[in-house]
């Protein structure tokens, strides 16, 4: 380890287990102080166990402190940022990783489950970015990070290939993760002049999400078997790199990481154009003239159903 994050203060949500814990461990190993934010709920967001955050913080040592409240409210997000300022003197790195999963086909989903997933997976990330980014901007003006300008501000949002490709029965989860990428782009634009970077990472690794996959066909079974081979430390390596000084020019980007493979995703842009001659034939023209460019209905599980580099 190089100690490239010495002096930085970080908040990692969902940091008590899985990918979040691996990220917290990697940041501390590079010298950062970290708040382990995790309310210890189930994968569906039920219940809570403050020992999850406490145990992880204890293992990480004196540079880590536990926070066991849900961050899915503006007030608690501000409280979390204030805790970082009080204990570490500021906030430089935010990793929005916390997420819950309540899957159902769109025609069967309980709207209350939709609301819970959107609140935890998308709104909570906005609340924390909202609370932290203003502080980061003021830190830049006050000289935190040195005389050459503030380049310590780093925000990384953990998204999902489900939000890019779609997946059966994951309307709420995929919508939240797609929205989180949209938030990434706008936040990157809003904060660019302040030298605060904002990026998104879609991870492929063994997590509680992959553990509960119930394969319905051979492709899904193979995907799960491969995913269970991939350690979360690979995701942590990429997030730590994005938080480093060397990544100050990387912002507004969408990455994927699967073992030792790092993907740079393209972002939606027009791929074809159609001039409307007769509105009455528009539907036919869409198929005849643009159909060859249509995006297929491949799910994310099918798209990445190849052997990973581990």
Structure description:
The protein is of the alpha/beta class and 310 residues long. It has a single domain, classed as Rossmann fold. It contains 11 helices and 8 strands. The protein has helices at 18-29, 51-60, 74-88, 111-142, 162-165, 171-191, 208-211, 218-227, 233-242, 282-290, 300-303; strands spanning 9-13, 33-37, 64-67, 93-96, 154-158, 197-204, 254-258, 261-264. An 8-stranded mixed β-sheet has the order 3-2-1-4-5-6-7-8, sandwiched between helices. Strand 7 (254-258) and strand 8 form a beta hairpin. The longest helix has 32 residues, at 111-142. The model has no long low-confidence stretch (mean pLDDT 93).
Write a compact overview of the structure shown.
The protein has 310 residues and is α/β, with parallel strands linked by helices. It has helices at 18-29, 51-60, 74-88, 111-142, 162-165, 171-191, 208-211, 218-227, 233-242, 282-290, 300-303; strands spanning 9-13, 33-37, 64-67, 93-96, 154-158, 197-204, 254-258, 261-264.
